[in-house]
Amino acid sequence: MSGDGQNQQLPQAAAPALPAQPAYSLWQMIMYMLRLGALGFGGPVALVGYMHRDLVEQRGWISEADYKEGLALAQLAPGPLAAQLGIYLGYVHYRIAGATLAGIAFVLPSFFMVVLLGWAYVSYGGLVWMQSVFYGVGAAVVGIIVMSTKKLTQKSIGKDKLLWAIYLLLAALTFVTETEIAWLFIAAGVLVWLLRAPPTWLRGGRGNAPSLALAQIPVLGSLLGAQDASLLMQIGIFFAKAGAFVFGSGLAIVPFLYGGVVTEHHWLNDKQFVDAVAVAMITPGPVVITVGFIGYLVAGLPGACVAALATFLPCYLFTVIPAPYFKKYGKLPGVVAFVDGITAAAIGAIAGSVLVIARRSILDVPTAVIAIVSIALLWKFKKLQEPLLVAAAAILGLLIYPLLH
């Protein structure tokens, strides 16, 4: 009888796919994304690091494989890196509802902040104190993203010589060119795929079509309609282009925005545009949220809403449309190798962007000291909250910058 009882219990124990069941509720994911959007300083480099630390390492909500797939997809598609990764991680267990609500929760806090700052900017004639705050915060952010990149590199690259070669090459190219070359991410994926898991047709057999079909991203032509339109329509069309055709992390969108907002449409002058970028850097959440500030300066609250929606809608679609294929075919050896190559390239580009940001943020001895102390504190105290570090750096900036300038 005991044997029969065991035989009856075994199927019951084996039947439920327990590992596939999420260890968290959708509401918990929404609350996490709200918190990250409200307190996550440091731009895309730091934000993707926070997601890995919190959701993969500490809470175990997301597997390492799912995280790598999300990072690869986010780097392949145009649009803001951190927002796309957040949308994908919401999709992992809760599909469209999870992707939608996670994306909204991630963007909403920083959107409200930049709109409030936009109102203050318009009402009080500029934000003079911003330079002082950014002076300190920019240096601390360098320390934060250095540590985030270190963790990502150790976890994803390890001791793999091929991935290290790709990583270093992309880091160097990103640093030298100050831009992220999208086709190199795909080339890195193809290289690792061909070396690690070549398709059968390369060995003389008749295999299936290459998994590179995953990289074919649909084009949102319907968002790029007629040129003659109202101001809000012009804002929507311009920022949809920004969201649909700019690759790379947050700062990659800045040159595109400058060309349209300042040079082409003359919506802002140079000083206003620089202030808009500074607002994005001193507020938490995605750097791309500067589009909300710009939209507010151009057309008030409606302009801010249209600019933000138009920018983030393409990246949302570029994430949820290919996501089922990543989930379905993501465990195939060829796809795993392809994703490994893209991940190495993506993290290498992130490392290169750290150096670019450092070159622009470390201006003198005090900022160098703030950056070094930030790295040391984060290294020593693993549970130190980054917002506390950012707040302390902002206070130092307010105290030091006026004395030097």
Quick recap:
The protein is mainly alpha-helical and 405 residues long. It is built from 16 helices and no strands. 47% of the residues are buried.
**What composes the largest sheet?**
none
List SSEs in N-to-C order. HHHHHHHHHHHHHHHH
Kindly provide the radius of gyration, computed on alpha-carbon positions and rounded to a whole number of angstroms: 22 Å
The share of residues in extended strands comes to under 5%
> In whole angstroms, how far apart are the ends?
86 Å
> How many DSSP H or I helices?
16
List the domain count as a whole number.
1
Structure summary, number of beta strands: 0
Attribute tags:
405 residues; mainly alpha; 75% helix; 0% strand; disordered N terminus
Q: Please, could you describe this protein's structure?
A:
α9 crosses α12. The protein is globular. The chain has one domain. 47% of the residues are buried. The longest helix has 44 residues. With 405 residues, it is mainly alpha-helical.
Ordered list of secondary-structure elements with their pairings:
Elements: H1 2-14, H2 26-39, H3 43-58, H4 64-76, H5 81-124, H6 129-156, H7 161-177, H8 182-196, H9 231-245, H10 253-264, H11 270-282, H12 290-320, H13 323-329, H14 333-361, H15 365-380, H16 386-404
Helix pairs in contact: 2-5, 3-5, 3-6, 4-5, 4-14, 5-12, 6-11, 6-14, 6-15, 6-16, 7-14, 8-14, 9-10, 9-12, 11-12, 15-16
